[in-house]
C-alpha cells in the first residue's frame, strides 16, 4: 500500500552558530507581525540594537537529525539557540529568503507544534506573507504588479524583494550590468515605491536595488545589476514630485547625484 505524502515543508529553522539545520515546518502562526513604520521596517542589517521580542508557533514541525526535539516525546523543556534563521522555502525546498533571530528558545507544545521566543532586528512584515506566496510560484513575471497594492501596503513587497535578493546572491540579476538606469516616476508615490521602481528598472520584475539610502548607495557602487556610477534617466519626474516631499527628494537626489555619472530629470 502506497504512503500518502504529507504537506511539503514551507519553512525551515537553521542554527547559524552551529551551521546546521534544525527542523522544517509546514506553517507558521503569529509570524508576520511587523509593520511599525519605515523606521522599524528598514532595519535590514541585523544588529544588537533596537531588537524586538518575537514569539511565533511552527506547525508540522519535523526535526532534522541530529537535532533533538526539545523535551523529547513528552516534556516541554526548551532548547536554547544563540543565533538562528527562519528560512522561507520554495516548492522544491530552496531557500527564498530568511529572517534572522537571536537568543531563541524552542519549546514543545505538542507532537508537531513548537513555539519559538527570540529577539530580532527585522520582524516579518504583516503584508509579506502573500508576497512570499507569489515568490513560491516563481515570482512576478511582469513589472509594476506591486502598484496594485495601495500606498502604505507596499513595505511587505519590498521586504520580500530585499531578502530574496540576499538569499539568492542576486542570481536573477542581468548577466551584463547596465550602464544606464531608466527610472519611471509614474508610480513613485512614497519611498517604498521608489525602491520597488528602481529595483525593477535595473533587475526586472521583482528586482532589488536597495531599500534605504545606505543600501541604495551600496548598489550604486556596482555589483547589483548596474555598473558603478551609472547614468540615470528619471522619466515622469514631475509625477514623483507631486507625491514625495522636497526633503525626501533632496535626500534621494543627493545620494544619486554623488554616485552616478549623470542624472537626467524628465
Q: From N to C, what is the helix and strand string?
A: EEEHEEEEEHHEHHEHHE
Arithmetic mean pLDDT: 89
Evaluate the radius of gyration. Answer: 20 Å
Largest sheet geometry: 8 strands, antiparallel
Written description of the protein model:
- The chain has 266 residues and is an alpha+beta fold.
- Helices cover 24% and strands 30% of the residues.
- The chain contains seven helices and eleven strands.
- The chain has helices spanning 38-41, 129-136, 155-167, 191-203, 213-220, 237-241, 246-258; strands spanning 11-15, 20-25, 27-29, 52-59, 62-63, 78-89, 95-110, 113-120, 178-184, 226-235, 262-265.
- It has an eight-stranded antiparallel sheet with strand order 3-4-8-7-6-1-2-5. Strands 9-10-11 form a three-stranded parallel sheet.
- Helix 3 (155-167) runs parallel beside helix 4 and helix 5 (213-220) packs parallel to helix 7.
- The model is unreliable at 38-48 (pLDDT under 50).
List the helices and strands and how they pair.
Blueprint lengths: L10 E5 L4 E6 L1 E3 L8 H4 L10 E8 L2 E2 L14 E12 L5 E16 L2 E8 L8 H8 L18 H13 L10 E7 L6 H13 L9 H8 L5 E10 L1 H5 L4 H13 L3 E4 L1
Parallel strand pairs: 9-10, 10-11
Antiparallel strand pairs: 1-2, 1-6, 2-5, 3-4, 4-8, 6-7, 7-8
Helix pairs in contact: 3-4, 5-7
